[in-house]
């Protein structure tokens, strides 16, 4: 048995691997938050709930429709991204509308839908609520589509977006908790990625590497780098960066900025759902999985710098590793180390390690 | 006869304004800034908006392109009423806007800034033609947009809307704070654009410069157009103009 600084290598590398896995999730989630924050200027508190929804959609696809992991990896982000688009159009965007009629349609149709489904069709509270939300969103979308585009908008404080998404997160989590309980549902590793490799250095075994965990690290790296490339190196990304800086001027050039905002939110949410599917075979599928993770991810975002793309990727992976190291060498601090770093960074460089002070 | 009859409607169209503004009012939040601006611009014309600081020149351009959140009255472009349109739709009718603060994007390279505004109409300049107009931009095409000098940023801000095929250019103080040689270069550019048939609304503090390029001058005071002076009569009205501008 090889030991390093008095720690058995298998334990050390095992913890580092775990750190890297956690770091993968931190990176994808904080990347989505950064993209959303850049353009919408809101901190998307619903991010953890939508990550959880991604895992649940994978579970539902498998258990209700018999659709397996690889399709879920594509379908869950598309479905949850679509939910994100509806959330943005019907809940977030109207915050800055100067007339609130679309919101009244949303509220009215949701309320009537709930009464009808709950008392008329005697559905359970959870199902009636989900059905009512669908009816409300459909009515508000039709209303918004039928009338001329809202050209006059008012500026609202970012705090309202944060509070709104926080409320949505609690509602979504509550619905899943009612329906599926909190004990967690199993989701198996896809057969192609079962098993693992014994990693050796000069014939000495160092650690056992499960295939699925290696895949999670590789997949998250690829998704993060592809997103970074798209934003920093393509024409589409140039629109995104420009609209992040000065949305008014970009729309004065003839670009549909509200549409870009909606699609960006949908994309950020799809990233969260992708992470949720990756996570499903590792952690059990649980309504609280997002709430537990998102607090750490917010700390990661603060450390990396709000809105920085590369910053969120690098910080996400690094802090995962730091957490893993801490578990080996100073386990007492392992659950607080990220928050200690956050406080230190805020004191020394409030804009974050990669953030530009404005 | 037949020929004259054919030509007549075309001639009538040519004299109709490309841009017609009447009773335009605009607000920043609660503060009422434009109080009934009325003027028009014929196709191919270069007109200036002159006036003291705070007279409402910038706000007028912002209202035309549609980025004031509240505006009323009438703004027609090529016969289309735009007052209820969002700015993205107005821009797509063929207007290009160069803001007072130039609006160069720091997170984009010079080349990306140049390529950013979408082409809205056929017949815009090619990148190559823009580089011929402003050779500095070619040399600096890989730099970060905001690393350019003030003059180069102004060239970039003008250059990037020439690609779009916009027929009407709204230029807000393109010579502000620039060295005389650069002012001359921008003056030559405006003359060249006028020869190519662009219609230009130019906001200027410097009426000596305005005189070299414009056909007519509108004078603004406290959110209204209070006078119009054809360029040929500018010298005769110089004292009146000094009074307007408070110089
Ligand atoms: N963002 C704003 N919020 C509130 N009031 C504004 C804002 N911008 C301009 N104003 C006010 O509107 C009036 C007109 O301003 P505007 O910028 O149109 O003037 P201008 O003629 O372009 O002046 P300058 O020559 O200094 O550029 C001024 O009284 C100004 O104080
Ligand atoms: Mg101005």
From TrEMBL, chain B:
InterPro entries given in the database record: AAA+_ATPase (IPR003593), ABC_transporter-like_ATP-bd (IPR003439), ABC_transporter-like_CS (IPR017871), BCAA_Transport_ATP-bd_LivF (IPR052156), P-loop_NTPase (IPR027417)
Superkingdom of origin organism: Bacteria
Domain spans labelled ABC transporter: 19-247
Gene3D superfamilies according to UniProt: P-loop containing nucleotide triphosphate hydrolases (3.40.50.300)
Residues annotated as transmembrane: none
MF annotations from Gene Ontology: ATP binding; ATP hydrolysis activity; branched-chain amino acid transmembrane transporter activity
One annotated GO biological process: L-amino acid transport
Keywords: Amino-acid transport, ATP-binding, Nucleotide-binding, Transport
Family: Belongs to the ABC transporter superfamily.
Protein's name according to its UniProt entry: ABC transporter ATP-binding protein
Organism of provenance: Enterovirga aerilata
Classification of source organism: Bacteria, Pseudomonadati, Pseudomonadota, Alphaproteobacteria, Hyphomicrobiales
